[in-house]
Amino acid sequence: MTISCDTLPQGTLNVEQAQAHILASIPVLQANEHVTLWQAQGRILAETVSAPLDVPPHRNSAMDGYALRHADLTTTTPLNVIGTAFAGRPFAGAVQPGECVRIMTGAVVPDGTDSVVMQENVQRDGDTIRLTATLQAGENVRHPGEDMRTGDAVLQAGHKLNAADLGLLASLGIGEVSVLRRPRVAFCSTGDELKGIGETLQPGDIYDSNRYTLYGLLQKLDVEIIDLGVVKDTPEAVEHAFQQAMQLADILITSGGVSVGEADYVTATLLRLGQVNFWKIAMKPGKPLAFGTLGQGFFFGLPGNPVSVMATFLLFLRPAILRMRGESVPVVPEYPAICDTPLKKAAGRKDYQRGICQRDASGQWRVSSTGGQGSHILRSMSQANCFIVLPLEWSNVEAGTTVSIIPFEGLL
Ligand SMILES: Nc1nc2c(c(=O)[nH]1)N[C@H]1C(S)=C(S)[C@@H](COP(=O)(O)OP(=O)(O)OC[C@H]3O[C@@H](n4cnc5c(N)ncnc54)[C@H](O)[C@@H]3O)O[C@H]1N2
Ligand code: MOO
């Protein structure tokens, strides 16, 4: 799994260019593992599954009622009930003309019979029955293989398993499947100012929040998560974390240290150990982003500001991880909405402002700002349920303008 980033443009990219370069570089992980059905939800099938048997395996009744020979219904003579067929306990004998068998839903339809009348359409008198409604030949009989036939390719390689698929596999007696291995994603925060929860803040310190945000975002994507903790701003600490990631992970995500500050050992270490591109992306928040290869894996250096972490993760890392998982990468839908608050914006960067959207009584989407939009104001993200996407060339937005929104539903 190696890429060459030689051809990637340096300097400032727009969001779409950066997304395209990243997706073109990330391969589907070519590694399989076997999992039981209990662990298979949401996993991507590595091999096509063919049915080893017919489902249903036998002719069975769709109703509680009586199994009979349709030809017997040409007269009004009552039919003799000669036994009972339960699901899992078939009727053992053969059914002769003029006879029928009491039958339950799912029970094997006895030899000699071809139709089932539901009990609501029968008048029973001792051990005989008489039909009170018409019945089609073959009615209420389910046939072997009606759902799946032996040899049918029922699930294709590359399919993402859902709850219905788990039941389908179980109905075929298949308890284990070969799936693509989940990407291993290591992440860390960098910065001397960062303290762990429970530690006392000294002047200049803040609590590390990005690791918790990243953990939550990664959990949504069903990857193997490797937490490398908080890494100090020293060459040794950064190198140690990167060496660990090279041993353990397919992707390393760092936050912080990708701008132009002086305690920036992330970039220096990466240049030594990997192949890296540093970009400025014409977006706000999330201007600086480092992307490249590290050993056999990939590296994403996200900016340290907490809202920038979320925006760059959702726009660049999420599609990359979906691709590596073997999933199709969906286009994230944008919808028009009337903006009820004026928005401040400088031209030159595409803005992902945080908003609250809802439909009004007429079904029209409306959106308003969550307030302060600095990339350090995580509360604006926590209160939001959508991004308000403002094109690069736009400047300030007046209330009443139609804007584009990206609802967070399914993303966070
Ligand atoms: N002279 C310039 N300065 C900056 C520029 C620039 O173009 N020229 N870009 C600004 C932009 S935009 C961003 S975004 C940041 C990105 O900086 P870094 O990626 O180097 O991040 P840091 O400086 O390490 O941190 C930025 C900010 O975020 C806080 N932080 C960092 N890690 C965490 C964490 N794990 N949990 C919570 N908060 C964190 C950190 O304390 C800083 O306040 O650069 C601008 N500067
Ligand atoms: O790119 Mo930065 O994220 O605006 O703060």
Write the layout of secondary structure elements.
Elements: E1 11-13, H1 15-25, E2 32-36, E3 49-50, E4 60-61, E5 65-68, E6 79-85, E7 99-103, E8 115-118, E9 122-125, E10 128-131, E11 141-142, E12 153-155, H2 163-171, E13 176-180, E14 184-190, E15 194-195, E16 206-207, H3 210-219, E17 224-231, H4 235-248, E18 251-255, H5 265-273, E19 274-281, E20 283-284, E21 288-294, E22 297-302, H6 306-325, E23 335-339, E24 350-359, E25 365-369, H7 378-382, E26 386-390, E27 402-407
Parallel strand pairs: 1-19, 6-7, 14-17, 14-18, 15-16, 18-22, 20-24, 23-25
Antiparallel strand pairs: 2-13, 3-12, 4-11, 5-7, 5-8, 6-10, 9-10, 19-21, 21-22, 23-27, 24-25, 24-26, 26-27
This protein binds ligand LQZAQKY5 and molybdate ion.
How does this model look, in words?
It is a single chain. The N terminus is likely disordered. The radius of gyration is 31 Å and the shape is elongated. The protein has 412 residues and is an alpha/beta fold. Helix content is 19%, strand content 31%. The longest helix has 20 residues. A hairpin with a 5-residue loop joins strand 24 and strand 25. It has 4 domains: 166 residues, Molybdenum Cofactor Biosythetic Enzyme, Chain A (3-Layer(aba) Sandwich); 47 residues, Molybdopterin biosynthesis moea protein, domain 2, CATH 3.90.105.10; 83 residues, Molybdopterin biosynthesis moeA protein, domain 3 (Beta Complex), CATH 2.170.190.11; 73 residues, Beta-clip (Beta Barrel). Helix 1 packs parallel to helix 6 and helix 4 packs across helix 5. Strands 1-19-21-22-18-14-17 form a 7-stranded mixed beta sheet, sandwiched between helices. The chain has a 6-stranded mixed beta sheet with strand order 8-5-7-6-10-9, with no helix packed on it.
